[in-house]
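Supplementary Note 2. Why include the ligand at all?

Several targets in our set were suspected to adopt different conformations when bound, so apo predictions alone were not considered sufficient. For every target with a known small-molecule partner we therefore ran a joint prediction. The input for FE2/S2 (inorganic) cluster is given below.
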Amino acid sequence: MTSTPQPSSESLLGALRRQREFAAADEAAIEGLLSVRPPERMPRPEPVWDDAPVLVHDVVGERYHRLVLATPTIAATALAGQFLMITVPPKDGERILLPRPMAIHRRHPDAGNVEVIYGVAGRGTTALAGVVVGETLLVTGPLGRGFEFPEWTETEPTRTALMIGRGVGVCAVMGSVEDAARLGVDAVVVVSGRSGSNLIGLADCAELGAEVITVTDDDGSSRMPALAQRLRARFEAHPPDVILVCGAGVLARLAAELGAEWGVPVQVSLEAHMACGLGYCHGCAAPVATDPEVEGPLVCVDGPVFDAALPV
Ligand SMILES: Cc1cc2nc3c(=O)[nH]c(=O)nc-3n(C[C@H](O)[C@H](O)[C@H](O)COP(=O)(O)OP(=O)(O)OC[C@H]3O[C@@H](n4cnc5c(N)ncnc54)[C@H](O)[C@@H]3O)c2cc1C
Ligand code: FES
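The joint prediction is reproduced in token form.
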């Protein structure tokens, strides 16, 4: 009998330290960038609780899993950039108490289903990976305030939206790629990942007619100076009309810099640890500076999408 080699406590501590360093760098990158959008700019549908049968559960690339969930109301009402809270069912007597937030990657209102793509991070997503087709997942959604395009009239010339996603952050921007296809907006999507086999959403972008720019850590093309140079060259003649980002603080900062240079609005979707996703637990404070006397905004209800601009 063979046994799986266990990581040493030293390598686990190293991984934890690197994760903390990465999180700190990410937090520093977005410092001073974000603000909450006025609520009237972004009305959102009423969330529902739904027992959603799992229609498909397959593997995407080397690291990710895709769930297709039958949930007609959410499929019909979800706005781009909104998310679900997914309760993972108990397995072998073990309960995962809190639901886990997941972006709605694709909406298929005609078929009454939505797609979610996730990576295994810890206990909850490990248990989620064991769910089989035909099981039912309790989902709450659609939640949060998603991405929006500026108000464009139909008589205006062709518009271009630049979406930038890294890792599963691509899922948060994919709803806007769908909106772009529906509204006749040209979409240019930067898909960033560790390696070519870890890029999410390439088939979706092809189906939706979006132009894709892939960048990876493996060949160094995902580094900020290289990406900045590539985007400046791509948009030299005509800058995009809006930039939507999810997946890394450094990407949010780059987008804010480009947004300032091109004079276009930037929106950034954030991740946070969430217990309820509904604004009840106050456990997901957003890194947005506010009056110290007043409780700051929450990622789950005031975001996850925020306006981003360089501090003046
Ligand atoms: C609005 C929103 C949308 C999201 N969309 C997706 C998605 O489409 N696909 C996807 O794979 N993931 C997504 N996430 C992240 C996902 O919710 C977490 O990976 C998941 O909750 C981890 O649960 P777990 O029990 O497996 O891991 P845990 O055991 O809870 O955590 C494992 C490790 O990941 C870290 N971690 C957990 N949650 C987060 C978080 N939210 N941010 C940063 N670090 C975290 C923990 O500190 C720990 O080190 C989203 C998060 C938010 C807030
Ligand atoms: S997750 Fe509970 S308030 Fe945001």
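The CA atoms of residues 231 and 258 lie 9 Å apart. The chain is about 25% helix and 25% strand. Comparable summaries for the other entries are listed in the accompanying table.
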